[in-house]
Specification:
There is one protein chain. The protein is α/β, with parallel strands linked by helices. The chain is 39% helix and 21% strand. The protein is built from 10 helices and 10 strands. The chain has helices at residues 40-47, 68-71, 89-97, 105-114, 128-140, 158-175, 186-192, 209-214, 220-223, 236-260, and strands at residues 3-12, 15-24, 29-34, 55-60, 63-64, 74-77, 146-150, 178-182, 195-199, 205-208. Strands 6-7-8-3-9-10 form a 6-stranded mixed beta sheet, sandwiched between helices. A 3-stranded antiparallel beta sheet has the order 2-1-4, with helices on one face. The chain is globular. The relative contact order is 0.19. The model is unreliable at 220-250 and 260-270 (pLDDT under 50).
C-alpha cells in the first residue's frame, strides 16, 4: 500500500476527527470529498506529518510515519503557490534543486514545455490554471510516488478543469503514481477516481467509486457543497486559500530546513 491510515483520532476544542481509516493501493486515484469542517484538511495535514494525531497510525510506502525520505517522494499541490511571486519558473527550478535530492531538472523543463508555461512572466502574473500546472510540474519533477492535491480545479474554467483532470489521468496511467485529490467536484471524482473517501459529520465512507455511486442519493446531502462564491459565507474562500498556502509552505519549509538548514538564494512567501 502507498498509504494506510488506521483509526486516526484528533480532538480539538470544537472539532473531533474520529477513527478515520482507509488504504490507498499503488496506482490508485482517491477522491476525498465531503462536507466543510468534517476533517478533510486535518486528515491531509496528519498524513503529511504537519499535525499529530492523538491516536491511530499513518503508514506511507509500507512503514509507519512520514520520514524525510518519504517527503521527497510525495508531491503536494495546494490552492495557492507558496513561493516568492517575483520568481520566474527557471528560478523556481533552482530553488527546488536545493530542496529535493532527487530533483530532475530535465523532467521539470519537460513538464514546463508540456504545460506551455512561459519563463518570461513572474509567478504573480500567472493565471490560476497556470499556477496549478506549475505546482503540478514541481510536484512531478522529483519522481513522486504519491501526489496529493487540494481542490485542483476550483476556480478554473471548464476547459482548464478538463485539461487538469486529463493531465492527472495521464500521469497516473503512464507513471503509475497514486493520487489523493481533495475536491468538491463529485461528478468528476466519480469519473476519474478509483476510490472515494467521503467525509461527513455523521460518519465517513471509504470504498471504490463504484461502491459509492451504488449508494445513490443518500450521499448527496453530504457533498452538495456549492463552490460558487455567492453560496459561501463571507471570507470562506479567502480563509481556505490562506490555510492551504500555509500548509504547503510548511511542508516545503520542513523539507528544506532538514536539507540545508533553511538557507537558500530564494525565499518562500510564507
Amino acid at each position: 500500500m502507498v498509504l494506510q491510515v488506521k483509526e486516526i483520532h484528533k480532538q480539538y476544542p470544537q472539532f473531533l476527527l474520529d477513527r478515520v481509516s482507509f488504504e490507498l493501493p499503488e496506482g490508485a486515484i482517491m477522491g476525498l470529498i465531503g462536507e466543510n469542517g468534517a476533517g478533510k484538511s486535518t486528515t491531509m495535514r496528519i498524513i503529511l506529518g504537519m499535525a499529530q494525531a492523538d491516536s491511530g497510525s499513518v503508514s506511507v510506502f509500507g512503514h509507519e510515519g512520514v520520514t524525510e525520505q518519504d517527503r521527497a517522494q510525495i508531491g503536494v499541490v495546494f490552492d495557492e503557490l507558496p513561493f516568492n511571486q517575483t520568481l520566474f519558473v527557471s528560478h523556481l527550478g533552482k530553488v527546488m534543486q536545493g530542496i529535493y535530492p532527487n530533483w530532475d531538472q530535465q523532467a521539470y523543463e519537460g513538464y514546463l514545455a508540456r504545460f506551455r508555461l512561459p519563463d518570461k512572466k513572474e509567478l504573480k502574473d500567472f493565471s490560476r490554471g497556470m499556477k496549478m500546472k506549475l505546482s503540478l510540474a514541481v510536484a512531478m519533477s522529483h519522481h513522486a510516488r504519491l501526489l496529493i492535491l487540494d481542490e485542483p480545479v476550483t476556480g478554473l474554467d471548464p476547459e482548464a478543469a478538463h485539461d487538469m483532470y486529463h493531465t492527472l489521468e495521464y500521469l497516473n496511467r503512464t507513471e503509475g503514481i497514486a493520487i489523493v485529490m481533495v475536491t468538491h467536484d463529485l461528478q468528476n471524482a466519480l469519473k476519474y477516481a478509483t476510490h472515494i473517501l467521503h467525509a461527513g459529520h455523521k460518519g465517513w465512507f471509504f470504498g471504490t467509486a463504484a461502491e459509492f455511486a451504488a449508494k445513490g442519493d443518500e450521499n448527496y446531502y453530504a457533498v452538495h457543497d456549492r463552490q460558487d462564491q455567492k453560496y459561501m459565507p463571507f471570507g470562506t474562500r479567502r480563509r481556505r486559500k490562506v490555510r492551504a498556502c500555509g500548509s504547503i509552505a510548511l511542508f516545503y519549509r520542513q523539507h528544506r530546513q532538514t536539507r540545508n538548514g533553511g538557507t537558500g538564494k530564494y525565499g518562500f512567501r510564507l
